[in-house]
């Protein structure tokens, strides 16, 4: 009977719109008339009674979208409405749970939970009552007087949830709330949260959560939005019809996870025509933003893929579970191998290329030689660094020679990470050297 009543409540709530976003575009100016487009033509809606997941790789603008919805950021263009009204500032009725616990270390658990109510001007007695109720609901009864340093990571995140719930928001935004926790703690907290949601005990109407974990999204969400990267656009919307509690071993669950991996590794028509176009990285040519991944990790991934039971080809969900990697980390690592033409990702699978197999079968010197060939051929920035060093009589060039050029097309942080990636790869391949003390690239001692 309770279940039937819940279904009626949820069905009634479906007609009540919370968030409506239409044609949202978010652009940041990097200077010198260079723009970084983070979100482009994003439209979505959220209604009461649903948990919606935002899935996407780094650079897809997931966190930016949360800030736009909450009213903390104003989009460059487009329309954002909260319960039918235009959003022009921070939205009352929206609470946020962050990846980092973001607790005040000098305040007790109770004081941390109360602080949001204090900012709203709630009377002291009412603050105390609501805070204690939230603490009890989230499973921290007895720890009201503890300080954050005395709590485990999972308990600190529970305080974060209590602090968000205590204001009784209509919409709770969660930005990778479980990613800083160990596997078992994260699983416990997810389960507890879903149990409270199903039982109708959470004082919220809907949840919008950002996650890199595909299984987490399928486990928790009623609907999943997949964002493409650079710029972020909604590439797909998937309805999850599985009943709670959901079983990870259920064939329907596994099939849905496989389908999402396939969607997230699907190449566009342009990329299928031009194998050099993108490989998941923003920018083109020397302006491609690179991930700083060590050659030890890249080598280890190729060796793991080449070994049984994969023997050169693997289903990404199975590989993610074997390597204990979440989706974003897995994609980032294998996109780098794909960029270097040592592997290929498509339709939810990853496969070693002939060059990747040759790399695994080679000795140390042959591996370095092969890596150098691919670095020059497929990473334009590495080729530019080597060419500049070859052409200069001193065979030296400062870090700023390349960083300043990159900063015309990307953020300073991305420019630094991109150059650091090329430095690491170039050193390993003995293509060039880099002196940290002087900040100079060189050919004197590439090793």
| Spatial strand order of the main sheet | 6-7-8-3-9-10
What's the main sheet like? 6 strands, mixed
- The tally of structural domains comes to 2
- In the CATH scheme, the class of the largest domain would be Alpha Beta
Total of DSSP H or I helical runs spanning 4+ residues? 17
Low-pLDDT regions: 1-14, 268-278
Instruction: Report the principal-axis shape.
Output: globular
The number of strands is 16
Please, could you describe this protein's structure?
- It is a single chain.
- Helix 6 (183-198) links the parallel strand 7 and strand 8.
- By secondary structure, this protein is an alpha/beta fold.
- It has a six-stranded mixed β-sheet, with helices on both faces. The protein has a four-stranded antiparallel β-sheet with strand order 2-1-4-5, with helices on one face. A three-stranded antiparallel β-sheet has the order 11-13-12.
- It is globular and about 75 Å long.
- The protein folds into two domains: 2-263, P-loop containing nucleotide triphosphate hydrolases (Rossmann fold, 3-Layer(aba) Sandwich), CATH 3.40.50; 285-442.
- It has helices at residues 2-13, 62-70, 109-119, 124-137, 153-165, 183-198, 214-220, 251-264, 269-273, 295-306, 316-323, 327-339, 354-361, 364-378, 380-391, 399-406, 412-428, and strands at 17-31, 34-47, 51-56, 77-82, 85-86, 94-97, 171-175, 206-211, 223-228, 233-239, 313-315, 343-346, 349-352, 396-398, 433-435, 440-442.
- Helix 10 crosses helix 12 and helix 14 packs across helix 15.
């Amino acid at each position: 009977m309770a279940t039937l009543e819940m279904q009626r409540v949820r069905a009634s709530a479906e007609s009540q719109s919370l968030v409506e976003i239409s044609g949202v575009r978010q652009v940041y100016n990097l200077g010198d008339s260079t723009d970084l487009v983070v979100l482009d033509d994003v439209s979505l809606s959220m209604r009461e009674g649903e948990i919606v997941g935002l899935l996407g790789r780094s650079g897809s603008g997931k966190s930016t979208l949360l800030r736009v919805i909450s009213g903390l950021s104003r989009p460059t263009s487009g329309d954002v409405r909260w319960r039918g009204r235009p959003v022009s500032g921070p939205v009352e009725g929206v609470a946020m749970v962050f990846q980092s616990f973001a607790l005040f270390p000098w305040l007790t658990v109770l004081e941390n939970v109360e602080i949001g109510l204090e900012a709203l001007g709630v009377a002291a007695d009412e603050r105390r009552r609501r805070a204690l109720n939230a603490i009890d609901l989230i499973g921290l009864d007895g720890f009201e007087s503890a300080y954050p340093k005395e709590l485990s990571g999972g308990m600190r995140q529970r305080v974060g949830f209590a602090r968000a719930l205590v204001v009784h928001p209509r919409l709770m935004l969660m930005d990778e709330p479980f990613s800083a926790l160990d596997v078992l703690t994260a699983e416990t907290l997810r389960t507890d949260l879903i149990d409270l949601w199903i039982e109708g005990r959470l004082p919220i109407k809907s949840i919008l959560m950002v996650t890199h974990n595909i299984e987490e999204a399928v486990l928790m969400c009623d609907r999943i939005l997949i964002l493409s990267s650079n710029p972020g656009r909604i590439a797909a919307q998937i309805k999850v019809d599985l009943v709670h509690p959901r079983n990870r071993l259920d064939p329907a669950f596994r099939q849905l996870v496989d389908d999402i991996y396939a969607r997230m590794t699907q190449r566009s028509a342009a990329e299928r025509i031009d194998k050099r176009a993108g490989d998941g990285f923003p920018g083109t040519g020397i302006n491609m933003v690179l991930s700083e991944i060590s050659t030890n990790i890249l080598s280890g991934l190729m060796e793991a893929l080449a070994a049984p039971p994969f023997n050169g080809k693997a289903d990404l969900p199975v590989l993610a579970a074997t390597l204990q990697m979440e989706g974003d980390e897995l994609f980032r690592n294998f996109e780098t191998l794909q960029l270097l033409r040592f592997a290929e990702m498509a339709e939810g699978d990853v496969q070693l290329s002939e060059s990747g197999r040759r790399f695994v079968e080679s000795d140390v010197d042959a591996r370095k030689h092969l890596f150098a060939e691919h670095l020059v051929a497929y990473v334009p920035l590495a080729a530019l660094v080597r060419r500049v060093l070859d052409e200069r009589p001193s065979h030296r060039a400062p870090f700023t020679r390349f960083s300043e050029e990159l900063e015309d097309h990307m953020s300073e942080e991305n420019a630094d990470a991109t150059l650091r990636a090329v430095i690491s790869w170039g050193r390993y391949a003995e293509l060039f050297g880099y002196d940290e003390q002087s900040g100079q690239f060189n050919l004197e001692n590439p090793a």
